[in-house]
Amino acid sequence: MKPINQKANIIPRLHCLLFDHVFEETRAVTLHVKEYECKYCKKQATTNGNGRLTELTPAFREINGILERVYKHRTMRKSMLKVAKQDLKITG
Ligand SMILES: [Zn+2]
Fold first, then answer.
1. What highest taxon heads this organism's lineage (predicted)?
2. Average pLDDT along the chain
C-alpha cells in the first residue's frame, strides 16, 4: 500500500470539510447555467432551477447537454437572423 497517496487524498477532503468547497467554473451551459468543480476534492456541481449550486448527477449532466444544444441552436439562429436583417438594410 502507499500511505503517502492516501494522505494526499485526505487533505483536500479535509479542506472541504473544514472550509467548504472551492468551486471553479468548468463549463458554461447557458448564460445562467454553468458547471463547476471543486479545486480540492474534484466534486462537481451545477446551477439548478433556483439558481443555486447542486451536485452534478448523471441526470443533471444529461439535462445540461440538452440545454446547451438548445441554447447554441437559438443563439446561432438569432445571429443568423440579425445578419439577414443587416443584409436587407444594405440592399434595400
Ligand atoms: Zn471540495
1. Bacteria
2. 87
